[in-house]
Structure formats: structure tokens, C-alpha cells
Design brief:
Layout: H1 2-36, H2 41-71, E1 79-83, H3 84-94, H4 96-102, E2 105-110, E3 115-119, H5 120-137, E4 141-149, E5 152-159, H6 178-181, H7 185-199, E6 201-202, E7 205-206, E8 208-214, E9 219-226
Helix pairs in contact: 1-2, 2-4, 2-5, 2-7, 3-5, 5-7
Keywords: Kinase, Phosphoprotein, Transferase, Two-component regulatory system
EC number: 2.7.13.3
InterPro entries: BphY/WalK/GraS-like, HATPase_C_sf, HATPase_dom, His_kinase_dom
Length: about 230
């Protein structure tokens, strides 16, 4: 029985990785089609929505793959120095089709030449999932800020939507359990964010996330802190 469980686990991990690659190719194909053909507003909107939904599924698969690897003690961290403005610009580029179609204003405010040490793939996927969620619920604007505070990197993602529901504004989001995960896809995303943030350590200091409402835009505020 144990061998069968190990085999199934291996197949599951390989299948998720293969599906992730296929979805990435599909996203690239949609981008190519969007650039090459002439289409009316309705077709453009439909393509943007398809692109958005595939991106959400791809993000979900990346999270499941990371959780699978973490459960099997095989989640590697490739920590290197990265410039924040380059990473944020790439986030906007990934979602450009949906952003343009919805007419959402996306801006960032980052300290000049701000760079930090972290795993680019994991952190960019974490932030992209929050951005994708914000794109769904914002009214007109999303703002990303990044700055150094007390020897920590603090990244905030703000929107002008209705904000997070009260039940999500927990004092410690990292105390989420299986019940909270089953409530929505957002629960999985926040659990993933907590896991990845906590995996980044420096001098016994761990990364963390926090949720809030209000701020300059009056909507939801996602906060990521990395040591």
C-alpha cells in the first residue's frame, strides 16, 4: 500500500508540472493571437477573459505544486538579489491584456534602485496571485508599493474595491487551517503566500503577510514583509 501511495504522489507531482507547462504555452498562444488578428471589442473582451481565467488556473497549479513539494520536503529556495521595479513591471506585463480590456489603472511606487534577496519564481507567483485577485475586485485602480522598513522589505498591493471581508482580516493569517482553505480559492492563495513568506528567513527572522482595508485607495491592502 505504501509503494502505491508513493507512486501516486510522484505521478501527481509530475502531472501538475506538465499541466502547468501546457497552460503557459496556451497563455503564450493567446497573446500571439491577440497581437496578430484584427478583432472587435467583444472578441477582444472574450480573449482577455479567457487569458485571465487560464492565468488563474495556472497560478493555482503553481501553488499546488509548491505545496506538494513542501509536503515532501522538496521545496527549494533559489534566493538571489532582484530589483523590485523589474519584478513589478513583469507582473503588469503578465496581466496586460486583462488590464487594458478592463481599463484598470495599474501603478507602482518603489524606492529608487531597491533590490532584495528572495526566490524570484515563488515571490513573483505569490504577488501575481494577489494581483489577479485584485483585478477581479477592484473598481478602477491597483497600486503596488515597495520600500525598506526596519531592515525588512515591505510590499503592499492596494486597490479601490470593497476590501477584504471581515472574516479574512485575521490577526495572524498564518493560523489558517483546513476549514479556511475549503472556503474559497482565496484561502488557498493566502495559505500559499504564508508558506512562501515564512520560508524566507534571515537571522532567525521570518517573512510574513498581513491583510487590511483602507489605505490611500480605500479598498483591500495585501502586505508582504521579507527579512
Amino acid at each position: 500500500m505504501q509503494d502505491s501511495e508513493i507512486d501516486f504522489s510522484t505521478v501527481l507531482g509530475a502531472s501538475m508540472h506538465d499541466m502547468k507547462n501546457s497552460l503557459c504555452m496556451l497563455l503564450q498562444s493567446i497573446d500571439t493571437i491577440n497581437d496578430k488578428i484584427d478583432h472587435d471589442d467583444r472578441t477582444r473582451a472574450e480573449l482577455a477573459q479567457i487569458h485571465y481565467e487560464i492565468a488563474r488556473v495556472n497560478s493555482n497549479l503553481l501553488q499546488l505544486l509548491a505545496l506538494y513539494r513542501n509536503n515532501n520536503k522538496s521545496l527549494p529556495l533559489n534566493v538571489e538579489e532582484h530589483y523590485l521595479d523589474e519584478m513589478i513591471e513583469e507582473l503588469w506585463a503578465k496581466n496586460e491584456m486583462y488590464i487594458d480590456n478592463k481599463g484598470i489603472s495599474c501603478e507602482y511606487e518603489i524606492e529608487e534602485d531597491l533590490a532584495w534577496f528572495f526566490d524570484l519564481d515563488l515571490i513573483s507567483n505569490l504577488l501575481n496571485d494577489i494581483v489577479v485577485n485584485a483585478l477581479r475586485y477592484t473598481h478602477t485602480k491597483i497600486l503596488i508599493t515597495a520600500k525598506k522598513i526596519n531592515n525588512m522589505l515591505e510590499i503592499q498591493i492596494l486597490d479601490d474595491g470593497k476590501g477584504y471581508p471581515e472574516h479574512m482580516l485575521l490577526p495572524n493569517v498564518d493560523k489558517m487551517n483546513a476549514a479556511s482553505l475549503s472556503q474559497s480559492r482565496t484561502g488557498l492563495g493566502l495559505y500559499f503566500a504564508t508558506l512562501i513568506a515564512d520560508a524566507h528567513t534571515n537571522n532567525n527572522c521570518h517573512g510574513s503577510i498581513n491583510l487590511n482595508n483602507g489605505g490611500n485607495l480605500g479598498g483591500s491592502i495585501f502586505i508582504l514583509r521579507l527579512p
